[in-house]
Amino acid sequence: MADGIGTPGTGTAAATVEREDDLTGRLRVALKQSEDAGLEGAELSAALAAAIDDAHPADVADAMADLPRDDALRVFAALDLVRAAETLDEVDPDLSRYLLDHEVPGRIAALLDLLPPDDAAEVVSEASPERQEELLEDLERRAPEDAAEVRELLSYREDTAGRLMTDKFARLDADLTVDEAFAAIRSVDPDVETLNDLYVVEPAVGHKPGEERLVGVLSLRDLVRARPEQRVRDIMVHGDEIISVSVDTDQEEVARVISKYDFLALPVLDRDGNLAGIVTVDDVVDVLVEEQTEDVLKLGAVQQRHSEIPYLSTSVLATVRQRFGWLLLLFVASFLTAQVGEHYEGLVGRVAALASFVPMLIGTGGNAGAQAVMTVTRALALGEVRFGDWVRVLWRELRTGLVLGGTLSAVGFVFVFLVMRQPAPFAAVIACSITGIVIWATIVGSILPIVAKRLGFDPAVMSAPFITTLVDATGLILYFNVARLILRL
Amino acid sequence: MADGIGTPGTGTAAATVEREDDLTGRLRVALKQSEDAGLEGAELSAALAAAIDDAHPADVADAMADLPRDDALRVFAALDLVRAAETLDEVDPDLSRYLLDHEVPGRIAALLDLLPPDDAAEVVSEASPERQEELLEDLERRAPEDAAEVRELLSYREDTAGRLMTDKFARLDADLTVDEAFAAIRSVDPDVETLNDLYVVEPAVGHKPGEERLVGVLSLRDLVRARPEQRVRDIMVHGDEIISVSVDTDQEEVARVISKYDFLALPVLDRDGNLAGIVTVDDVVDVLVEEQTEDVLKLGAVQQRHSEIPYLSTSVLATVRQRFGWLLLLFVASFLTAQVGEHYEGLVGRVAALASFVPMLIGTGGNAGAQAVMTVTRALALGEVRFGDWVRVLWRELRTGLVLGGTLSAVGFVFVFLVMRQPAPFAAVIACSITGIVIWATIVGSILPIVAKRLGFDPAVMSAPFITTLVDATGLILYFNVARLILRL
């Protein structure tokens, strides 16, 4: 939603912004003093409410994340209903699940009732599975319509437009004059997410009641610009010219469309082509931050199920789990390098110095591969590169690798020959190997993400560590064969 | 700005969305046919305009990026003024500079005049330095006020709120009733960026005319919710409770505030505390995408001056320049590993198998370090970790490294002893080294970004390749000393 329900519709919060540390500190003091004084229940809540004062829900959520879980629950209990609902919407999923599982069910239902359906659906989705049905039944008793709406939203796949959308938007009739439209806006449901965009709808033909077709879109500014006697129909953008997404569109694609066209909101159509809701740009900002985190971590070979959980709130065990799979896989894969090493042990036995340069060579290959993989993965994410571009990418990276490898090989030759005082043929082995390894790593690092995407994987699984490990073994084989060739071993 | 000037104020574009490939294809055909028919000037423009039809400016910009520069200029010349202005706002900085340097100066001034000042300032900033003054003088002759506004915006440092803001926002008087406020909105300047948020201002005391103080903020929804006879003063959020940023605030911080509080717009105050403008969320979306690209590339040790330039539009030479600095630095640093290797050559001479396991050991260390550095850098960027948390981070990562390293060492022992049939003491060397190297890499990878940030650097300069190279040499020393100790060499 565009902002807290307590500060309806204003993009600029009603509450005082806190340096969150101050708020955490004040809460800690209040909790300590209350414990010392033996305060409980309503008295404890009053003391905590005084410490919270009029802090912004986003700041309260941050402060709660810094407190032990049971203290966070006490703070949560001290919030009035409206503030509690807003805060629940802001806390990270892990803490949210804890609060949902430990708070009195009746109060949660009251909170859900206060939240717009899209936020309520997100909150419910964070509860443990057995708790979800319980919450929905509670909500059903309080507000059957809201509960139905939440159930519908939850029926869409996670990370799709269906989950992000809201059905609280401003509707207009195409036949209204501009004057009448302004009058209609004055009496619009104040819970609508945005008044910047107005949606012109008519009942869907031959469908069950409540379904509506999007026939036009216009902005409040279009109304301001129009003459009073003009009709909405004449100034609106018409049906087939409206950019929209489907309930099944992936949230990354939704973010791409909104950011490309600089939209503030985007209509979402259901599977029958009827208007199901709108996605607003503020939800997209959250999506961007979330997907960004996922991408960065994936590129570092870190797997994260809930990337919204702050680093310091993640348990060590969870951190280990995020890293262990990839680390083990790459570890096992790297035994290949040991086997390559064993295979060439005779060679190393004859020229011991060969071994000393192994880390440098495969390290540089790994670095060149990491550079290529980060650049291309990012370009894929931004839609700058598609599968059809693979030949262009290959050709670009081949030349890039050639220039980079060539220059480094000159530096390497000078260093090995002059500084480390190795014989010239040996320096030549290092120089030739560097060129080859850098070109090879650059190509592998740039092409594999494209191939991965084509095969339906997230290109970011081709992480820097993955590419590095992959080019280590092949780089070694190249190196030892160059040595064999040049040194005639 | 919130959207193109041709589709004022609607978040949902008026123009047909193109599969951009189709548009590029149509333009290529039109260019080819025009060349074959010898068309030039107005005839050529007419042919191109027919191919463009009513494509969205964002799609036209994408198609232009796929064409040779001189063809892009021809397409640009074929656009009517309004569409050209919108398209100029969407093209990447490199192409923008080309267009600005090659288009007729008078036409550019006409385009700038059509753009809101914040977008005009961004366009001017993309021209070559000598051209900038020329453009501003042209604009001065056409629209002196706009030129002054653009000059003021350009006086702020790049990547600050001052550069992102616009002074086109809806102003209200605090003494208006709700009824009067609605009437005021009907006659507001239709060029305002948003009507969701309304800004209550009064003249700044003792300052030059035109300067105004922000006394309140309210949303259109607040107005809808209020009773007709209430006064704006009574329903607005008051001065000191308004969250705002300064003209000098970094754009990343602006993005953080807007995304944390789910704002649609944020007021910007000048150095005297007067209202200078507002930043809207759609600008923040662009900032997020841009900063995200920069971070990912930095983490891959790629330096990029203009991260907005699409990958395939970057020249190979520019790509080389982006990567060469770091690659060379890390290459030179990795000679340290060669020197470490030389130092222990005697050891390797006695136990040749030691050399075979070097790539595996330092590779695994590098991977563990990369995982830690990506996780912590991301947590720093999201504000989840601050310098004061370094002890907590150290303690977490120490335990994480211990569990990861311990588990891998068991796997390693079994593999080396049973599969590779090395003697038990040798397998123990590998096992102990892995534990040590993984712990060491995890700690270095997690602490260095925090230290870098404290020292005023961007933590992302502690890239995965940097950490990998750093732990390579130290890992080797650890390995050879463990070997010496266990194997009593």
In short:
Chain A is of the alpha/beta class and 489 residues long.
Characterization of the model:
2 copies of one chain form a homodimer. Chain A has a 4-stranded mixed beta sheet with strand order 1-2-3-4. A 3-stranded mixed beta sheet of chain A has the order 5-6-7. Helices cover 63% and strands 7% of the residues of chain A. In chain A, helix 15 links the parallel strand 5 and strand 6 (265-269). Chain A contains 23 helices and 7 strands. With 489 residues, the first copy, chain A, is an alpha/beta fold. At the A-B interface, helix 12, strand 3, helix 13, helix 15 and strand 6 of A face helix 12, strand 3, helix 13, helix 15 and strand 6 of B.
Write the layout of secondary structure elements.
The structure is a homodimer of 489-residue chains.
Chain A: H1 20-36, H2 41-52, H3 57-66, H4 69-78, H5 81-88, H6 93-102, H7 105-114, H8 117-126, H9 129-142, H10 144-154, H11 161-164, E1 170-172, H12 178-186, E2 197-203, E3 212-219, H13 220-225, H14 232-235, E4 237-238, E5 245-246, H15 251-260, E6 265-269, E7 275-280, H16 281-299, H17 316-343, H18 345-350, H19 353-356, H20 358-381, H21 390-419, H22 424-454, H23 464-486
Parallel strand pairs in A: 1-2, 5-6
Antiparallel strand pairs in A: 2-3, 3-4, 6-7
Helix pairs in contact in A: 1-2, 1-3, 2-4, 3-4, 3-5, 4-6, 5-7, 7-8, 7-9, 8-10, 9-10, 15-16, 17-23, 20-22, 20-23, 21-22, 22-23
